[in-house]
Amino acid sequence: MSGRVWLVGAGPGDPELLTLRAARLLSEADVVLHDALIPAATLALVPAGARCVCVGKRAGQPSWRQEDIHRAMAEAADEGLRVVRLKVGDPFVLGRGGEEALAMAAQGIPCEVVPGITSATAAAAWAGIPVTHRGLASAVLVVSGHAPEAYEAALGSLAPGSATVVILMGLRTAARTSALLLAHGWSPDTPAALILGAWTDAGVAWRGTLAELAAVEPPMGPDAPPGALVIGAVVALTLAGAAGATMG
């Protein structure tokens, strides 16, 4: 008897931002294969008898190969089990959810996607920054900053100031991103923010300018919180209810 796979978005970190469907599926799962950054409070929803395996990837750390993740999902489903592949944010926003869904489809394994709140908007919201705002920004570009080939073409084609730029997984390349945008005509005074650990107790935020961004030194290493860069006029807004501390 074939089981079933659910690709479930865990949201940006706070378990209260899970969808009701995501929480229910976790509570009914036989196997949970989860990203490295899923908080313990979210994993506490998994039944005591279920298999819970971290299959996440962290920069510079030993990581599961994507092919091995596909194999683990398929093998558990072939046992007739209910498999939750729990992914940070939304499975289809820079999360390889498409690859995993295609891998299940190729093997005839039923697979459903459960959307989650993406950090592309949630990190900015945590810091009180709307990624769009009438009169300031009517569009937002979300890119991965993991490697230059993943973002340089998109950023280089964007007219200066024409959209809010949100960069996930881009802390290590922040200085290069700043130089790229400046070289393509963006004003050095463009507001910029770096947000770390949004929606967690470790959350902090830095605000400054695009030119100053190059000199910021965010914490690195295996225990460093995830971060997002937000660049554009909307960063200058200060909205009520913003959470977190300020990073010096």
Describe the structure.
Helices cover about 25% and strands about 20% of the residues. The chain is built from 8 helices and 11 strands. The strands form 2 sheets. The protein has a 6-stranded mixed sheet with strand order 6-7-10-8-9-11, with helices on both faces. The chain has a 5-stranded parallel sheet with strand order 3-2-4-1-5, with helices on both faces. Helix 6 (about 150-155) packs parallel to helix 7 (about 175-185). The mean pLDDT is about 90.
Give the tags.
248 residues, Cobalt-precorrin-4 Transmethylase, domain 1, Methyltransferase, Cobalt-precorrin-4 Transmethylase, Domain 2, six-stranded mixed β-sheet, 8 helices, elongated
In a nutshell, what does this entry contain?
The chain is α/β, with parallel strands linked by helices.
Please identify, by name, the CATH architecture of the largest domain: 2-Layer Sandwich
Counting DSSP H or I runs of 4 or more residues, the number of helices is 8
Apparent shape: elongated
- Alpha-carbon Rg, integer: 19 Å
Structural class: alpha/beta
- CATH hierarchy, class of the largest domain: Alpha Beta
Q: CATH superfamily name of the largest domain?
A: Tetrapyrrole methylase, C-terminal domain
Strand order of the largest sheet: 6-7-10-8-9-11
Oligomer: single chain
Total domain units: 2
In CATH terms, what is the fold-level topology of the largest domain? Methyltransferase, Cobalt-precorrin-4 Transmethylase, Domain 2
Uncertain residue segments = none
Whole-Å distance between the termini? 56 Å
Portion of residues in beta strands equals: 15-25%
